[in-house]
Design goal:
The complex is a heterodimer of chains A (about 90) and B (about 200). Chain A is an all-alpha fold. Helix content of chain A is about 75%, strand content about 0%. Chain B is mainly alpha-helical. Chain B has one domain: Up-down Bundle (Four Helix Bundle (Hemerythrin (Met), subunit A)). In chain B, α1 packs antiparallel against α5, α1 packs parallel to α6 and α4 runs antiparallel to α5. Chain B starts with 10 loop residues before the first helix and ends with a helix. Classes of the chains: A mainly alpha (about 90), B mainly alpha (about 200).
Chain lengths: ~90, ~200
């Protein structure tokens, strides 16, 4: 039973190197005071790292639409929960 | 009439079903951690000064080291799964063994961090920031422990000659779970240690 969505070992190593690089970048950026942008940059870098892990390490890249649905729907719900809660707590 | 359950005995279908099952479980995990992330977002927006002052008490170097440790442990899982796809059971055991070891290193660093916090009188009940810190990292730590047990089980299966290039579903599935544990930390590290 061959799994077609295999990534080459060279590609895995590239993803690993990119993850380490992004970790160093996010730590260095945190020492610079950018105000609100610190949180935004940190979240953007974290999301880039999360995407790399999901796409290549978890093989989402070659998955069917059904699996993509299962991966993305909980994230949509999480955003709804956070936004819904904030509209309540911030506007009280 | 053909047997309606016949499809489930097809190894390819069984593999796809197992994978979908794991992704479903991971969806519930996103929402489990999601509740705590929601609490974090709400309180951080309500008390930005508290979070800014308290997050500085965490050790960003140790947090960074642990991030590198977990990312490396995910990389060794990927190499292990790649190995068993090519039928190399010994290599799978070595790679997953390395992951279990790295997970142990992660928990040791976490122990050092918790001990330092307790010494400075910072407990889960100290304030909102540390409540969230201990809840989030504690729940994540339990997931690391569960992952270590799961990966050990895969190593035992492999030692008994049960995994091969044709059948290695347990290795693939526990790999997915381990990457999720890594994913959660990828968000916990900047949110708790870097931007507070």
């Amino acid at each position: 039973m061959a799994h077609g969505n295999g990534t080459s070992r060279r590609a895995y190593a590239g993803v690993f190197a990119a993850l380490l690089l992004l970790t160093v970048v996010t730590v260095l950026v945190s020492y610079v005071d950018l105000g609100l942008w610190n949180a935004i940059v940190a979240l953007l870098i974290a999301s880039a790292k999360a995407s790399l892990v999901a796409l290549f390490f978890m093989h989402l890249k070659g998955e069917s639409r059904l699996v993509w649905g299962f991966a993305l729907v909980p994230i949509v719900f999480l955003v709804l929960i956070i936004l819904g809660t904030l509209t309540d707590t911030m506007l009280r | 009439m053909s047997d309606p359950s016949a499809d489930h005995h097809d190894p390819a279908v069984a593999f796809e079903s197992a994978k979908l099952g794991v992704w479903t479980f991971l969806a519930t995990e996103v929402l489990l951690f999601g509740a705590l992330f929601t609490a974090y977002t709400v309180f951080r927006m309500k008390y930005p000064e508290l979070f800014r002052a308290e997050h500085a008490k965490l050790d960003r170097v140790l947090g960074g080291v642990n991030t590198v440790v977990l990312i490396t442990s995910s990389f060794t899982v990927v190499l292990g799964v790649d190995a068993i796809r090519r039928g190399k059971a010994r290599l799978l055991e070595a790679c997953f063994g390395a992951t279990i070891l790295l997970a142990g290193v992660f928990l040791c660093v976490k122990y050092v961090e918790y001990a330092a916090k307790f010494r400075h009188g910072l407990y889960p009940g100290t304030n909102l920031f540390f409540s969230l810190y201990f809840m989030l990292t504690g729940l994540h730590g339990i997931h690391v422990l569960a992952g270590m047990a799961l990966l050990s089980w895969v190593v035992v299966l492999s030692r008994r000659g049960r995994l091969s290039a044709d059948y290695h579903t347990p290795a693939e599935m526990s790999g997915l779970y381990w990457h999720f544990v890594d994913l959660v930390w990828i968000y916990l590290f900047p949110l708790l240690y870097l931007v507070g």
